Amino acid sequence: MFKAYEIAGEMLRDRLKDTDKEAAGDFDSLGSNDVIVAKGSYDYIENVFRKINLPHQVVDPREIDRFSLDPKQIVFLNCPGNLSNAGVRNLVGFVENGGFLFTTDWALKHVIERGFAGTLRYNGNSTADEVVRVEINAKDDPFLQSLISEDDDPQWWLEGSSYPIEVLDPKVEVLVRSKEVKEKYGESAVFTSFDWGKGKVYHMISHFYLQRTETRSERHRRSSTGYVESKLKMSEKRMMKYASYKTDESSLGEVESAYSSSSLMGSVILEKSRRNRKKKSSDQEPQKYEPSKKGK
Question: What pTM value is reported for the model?
Fold first, then answer.
């Protein structure tokens, strides 16, 4: 999947250049202090970020207890998300003040239930180690609409003992669902988000770093070259660039899954960039003059 993520990272940037130049600029202007990754034992989001050349800073999760977080940042918390009470409180305050938090799998119980009660919870079942089909809800997200089409058939890897997500609050948005997960484990949610204070929380089942996929159809077994070409405006220069990635050596299923998960990550980062830009603009607006109501 490393090769698939390399290809997906280039695709995401090139697709943005074609559809949303402002978003492409936001990606290119990211600094290492904008994205914080707390290390985990089972998920390795930082590996994906390295492969797609996304600047980030990696910290030990124990540092979250005393880490001075800026609400302009995004914190990615790898599974299992074991934090002290002080660490959870720090993250809750960070989100309440405008920060974005992204958690995976067992952090549902270790962080979400403890710090953001009444939104999501672990339903008590545990998944097998398997790959499932997912449906991405892009109809309300113009960014995802520009990246994901109805022809896509993405898959999601569930590591053994992943925690199914029960949605408690109707205000929680489910961005990715799976009929297979619903049938087997009682809940369909795969990737969720909710507002909390001035900030936002994202949580997903299993791991962001998809370590494998399955070729469940003849389409998935094809070379990824045709998939890349169908997504992008392939100039001669781009054709030469992707030839150097040897896209014919990666399966369509691998690259499609990596591209889909990278697009979701891109949606999170760009939503945060838009909010930061909007806040900066409002902070710079001159205060409206109001005459004193006091007498002479």
Answer: 0.84
